[in-house]
Amino acid sequence: MVPLVGLRKITPSLVILAGWFSQDCSAWTPIKASTTDIHHSSSRREILGVGIASIMGFITTTSTPQPVQAFDNKISTKYDDRPKRRGSKPENLGVMSRKDLVGEEYMGLKHCGAAPNCFCSTDSIEDDPEHSIPAWIWPQESDKESAFAQLSEVISSYQPGQANVDGGGFKIITNDPKNGYMYIQFESLKNGYIDDVELALIDGTGERTIQVRSSSRLGYLDFGVNAKRLNYIAAKLRAKGWDAKGVDLNTHANYAIQNELV
Question: The whole model's pTM is what?
Fold first, then answer.
């Protein structure tokens, strides 16, 4: 709960409008205070100070974007003084039990949801053709260890700013070849929006197969950022002999139209 005191003109004939707002401002609990209580407990100046401090503190902690540093491999320092809107790391990332539209369980990555700002290879093409993309398959002659070595090489050599995306840089947060999982964060240059990318080897989803998820944290549209990122990485993997198709805008026409790519 967040204390909030709203003051109008303080006179002996008026009471203070005081109470508690819930953290999301959806509920208000009034507290009755008489003018006698006011005179006995605090001066008008003290009460006014508390009220203003409470209001300003509430606004500051809930509404103001906080400045943060971009990743070290960002392409420019031009927007370093601009407040960044990174968003919170989504819950339930990683490989875990999911449910499809009919309630059947499967092991997969987090569902994309409804917004056209996400792609996920474990989202069924029958259930969600708008977000589903093909998984990536490593070459026949490679094994799990060499496949993840190639993934790490390709991701590490990613060029921030390619196709005018991810200018804020990126960072590999988790690289766990033993358990077949990689998690990377990519950042936009101006506003510091963070996108989450996961690459995972999931038992039962195909031999030599890496499942892929790339999603924006904030907003509704991504203006092609996730597609451009995945297509860049997929092209680098194809050069190493992978079957990595990326995002085909012909089969994701709604994404392309909404994000103004056509």
Answer: 0.74
